[in-house]
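COMPLEX REQUEST
Ligand: zinc ion
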Amino acid sequence: MAMNCRHVWDHISGYIDGTLSAEVRLEVERHLAHCEICSAILDSTRNIIILVADDRVFELPVDFSKRLHARLDKVLSEEPPEPA
Ligand SMILES: [Zn+2]
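STATUS: Structure written out below.
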C-alpha cells in the first residue's frame, strides 16, 4: 500500500505524537523519504509544536488549524501529488 500526500497529512499529528501503529508509521516514513512537500510540512509542524512546548505556554494561535489547512491546500494546488 502506497500512501499519497493526503494520507500522510491525515496521519501527521499522530506521527509526531507517536500514536500511529507500526505499520502506518512505516508507510508514513516511506512516503516522507521521497516527498519534499510532506517533509517540509512535517518540519514546520514540528517546529510550531516545539516552540510552544519550550515556552510552556501551550497556546496555539486561534487560527492555527485554519492556516495549516490553508497552507496544505495551497501546496496541493501548486504541486499536485501523484494521482490517487
Ligand atoms: Zn507527500
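REMARKS: The first helix runs from residue 5 to 17. The chain has one domain: 5-78.
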